[in-house]
Amino acid sequence: MAHHEPGTEDSGTSESGSGRSVAHSPSPAELKEKYRLEREKRLRPEGIGQYVDFSGVYSDFDTDPYVEPGFTRDAVVDEVDVVIVGGGFGGMLAAANLRKAGINNFRIIDKAGDFGGTWYWNRYPGAACDVESYVYLPLLEETGYMPTEKYAKAPEIFAYCQLLGRTFDLYDVALFQTEVADAAWDDASDRWLVTTNRDDQLTARFVVIAGGVLHKAKLPGIAGIETFAGHNFHTSRWDYDYTGGGPTGGMDKLADKRVGIIGTGATAVQVVPRLAESAGELFVFQRTPAAVGVRNNMPTDPDWAASLQPGWQEERIRNFTALAAGDQPDEDLVGDGWTAMLRIDTRRRAPNKEAQAELDAIDFANMEGIRARVDEVIDDPAIAEALKPWYGQSCKRPCFHDEYLPSFNRPNVTLVDTEGRGVDRITPAGVVVGDVEYPVDCLIYASGFEVTTDYTHRLGFDPRGRDGVSLSEAWAEGPSTLHGVLTRGFPNMLMISTVQGGQNVNFLSPITATARHVAQVIKACLDGGVQAIEPTVEAQEEWFGAILTELDATWRYNAACTPGYLNNEGGGDMRSARGAAYMGSALNFSDILDRWRSSGDFPGVEVSRTDAVKG
Questions:
Q1: Is the pLDDT of residue 19 over 80?
Q2: Is beta strand 413-417 parallel, antiparallel or unpaired with respect to 281-286?
């Protein structure tokens, strides 16, 4: 979904798209120079500091539009085995795996009014998943559910999250519209003491933090943003009271409105077509164009669904994950834009110059196909040029959509290309780019989510471990973990995150593996009489060494990329490197976790057991 994950069927390359060739085929040297120049236009000295969060004068942006105001409940005092922070897929899968392991004494805390995580918040018109539903939605065989189409839309995914909640009896243990105020480890009792903004007091043997990959929305720190006198909101807090309509469109209240949208990433690619058909006038403010391939969504074939044999989803997930990592299995079960584009990993370090040139040529050809598609679709040559992405295929998350580009052929849609600078300022009346002010009645921010900011900033609380040391203090020089799950000084705290954890274009692949791992580690500890578990410094550094080994090729590739969240807005140092994900295959990551657990003796961790004498 937006940042989530938008989706498609075809890569949009010249081989798998229409096949129309561009007028001039630039040489590799010309393309590299073009990419360099476009990158330099967009570099900013403030890096990720160019964004702001929903605090202070922007706190109104963080209002939950999907719940009735004034919710209250009695404070909960409880002793449990596990407190899970987060009710998105990570938290739900951790809870489901705890249930399957026979561990039922737990609580789930989430700020939202229901399960779903990013799919709770992102209900903007057109929101959908860009990864095939049969691969993305977890536990389909266990719930008995079959998605209605190849790329499910947000309402269906949110409903599926609710189904998971019912299937695994999670609603009775959930504390919604609730935020963690503090989580502190107590050495005397070997317990976590968790308090909330609703005065809950939970004592837990383990804390699982599933704060989410796309959890904390951000705004562009544009001068004057707080002065705008019209209506404005972030896409993750869509205001249907103002726009009318719903997730499928039909926003009739915008018929006489001038609407501006800032951002042209994955979210905007999905929402712009719905705004274009509804707004009186639409102004799309673009800093960097998205790479948009063909989507070609389709309903689920009932005969195909009926033919599936037990174990089909795990097989399909592994096949997609391997293809998306460039492993090139013999068969492509999914056959979409992701597998066509990524079956050869152009980011990997080649053994020699000839092999590197071959990888570069594949990357260039894929992006030339994307740019050729722009020429094919867009009527106005000047607009077409502005919509062409000049960067490598993995520099930004590729998008796939069949209605985004045609939206710019509509007479009521204006593309305001800022030529890489971004919007200059916002006034009470509208948006200023260069010397032109664009008056708008409504301003929508499709500015995405924090990905590379400090972990505790995204969480909204700062866990305190041994001796009262906070996680932000312990990680002052950057994160240190074992597998992105355990961290020294914070016993019995387990994380499901991309911070030193797994990654894949299908976020659910590493999330599923990590959630299963977390539940099984907790199960082993409870069964084995383990009071406290935490990694050694040496094990953490060994894991960071493994991350650096896999990060090397990606770091080289990203260094030439246009700024974005995947390369920390063009910046980076050793501190940010310590927060990087494990860039090896998500299948390799899952295997690493499985091997660690199967060793049976918790290698690289220190444990204390119930028969130990407390000093």
A1: no
A2: parallel
Is pLDDT of 163 > 90?
yes
| pLDDT, position 600 | 80
**What region does 390 belong to: left with phi over 0, alpha with psi -120 to 50, or beta?**
beta
Give CA–CA dist 207/459, Å, rounded: 14
Among residues 429, 437, 425, the alpha carbon closest in space to that of 230 is found at 429
pLDDT of residue 11: 32
SS3 324: helix
3-class DSSP state for residue 608? strand
User: For tokens 């469109």, what's the residue?
Assistant: 249
Q: What is the pLDDT of residue 307?
A: 98
Partner residues linked to 107 by β-bridges:
83
List 453's β-bridge partners, or say none.
none
Instruction: Give the separation between CA 164 and CA 169, rounded to whole angstroms.
Output: 8
Give the architecture-level CATH label for domain 77-115+170-216+451-609. 3-Layer(bba) Sandwich (3.50)
Reported in sequence order, the residue ranges of 49-190 that DSSP labels E, i.e. its strands, are 51-52, 77-85, 106-109, 174-175, 180-186
Q: How far apart are CA 505 and CA 325, in angstroms?
A: 9
Q: List all residues 6 or more positions away from 522 whose beta carbon is below 8 Å from its beta carbon.
A: 81, 82, 98, 101, 103, 206, 208, 494
pLDDT of residue 581: 92
Residue 18: Cβ-neighbour burial (10 angstroms; 0-12, 13-18, 19+): middle
Cα–Cα distances (Å) from 521 to 105, 286, 313, 379, 441, in that order, read 16, 46, 24, 57, 53
Structure tokens, 29 = 């040297």
Nearest to 210 by CA among 130, 59, 98: 98
**Is the model's pLDDT at 609 over the cut of 90?**
no
Q: What is residue 571's predicted lDDT score, i.e. its pLDDT? A: 63
Which tokens is 612 given? Answer: 């130990």
Cross-strand bridge partners of residue 195: 182, 201
3-state secondary structure of 340: helix
Whether residue 269 contacts residue 406, with contact meaning beta carbons closer than 8 Å, is answered with no
Query: Can you tell me the distance from the alpha carbon of 356 to that of 347, in angstroms, rounded to the nearest whole number?
Result: 10
Pairing between β-strand 530-535 and β-strand 605-609 as defined by DSSP bridges = antiparallel
How far apart CA 94 and CA 92 sit, in angstroms, is 5
Cα distance between residue 261 and residue 285, in whole Å: 6
Whether residue 174 contacts residue 110, with contact meaning beta carbons closer than 8 Å, is answered with: yes
Strand 231-234 with 442-445, pairing: parallel
- Residue by residue, DSSP assigns 158-201 as HHHHHHHHHHTT-GGGEE-S--EEEEEEETTTTEEEEEETT--E
Residue 435, pLDDT > 50, answer: yes
Identify which of 245, 248, 256, 250 has the alpha carbon closest to the alpha carbon of residue 279: 256
Residues of the chain with CATH 3.50.50.60: 28-47+217-296+369-445, 77-115+170-216+451-609
Question: Does the pLDDT of residue 498 top 70, yes or no?
Answer: yes
State the chain's maximal CA–CA distance in angstroms.
78
Asked if 325 and 177 count as a contact pair (C-beta separation under 8 A), the reply is no
Mean pLDDT in the chain? 90
* Residue 116: closest CA among 91, 96, 149, 99: 91
CATH architecture of 28-47+217-296+369-445: 3-Layer(bba) Sandwich (3.50)
Tokens of 385: 């040029």
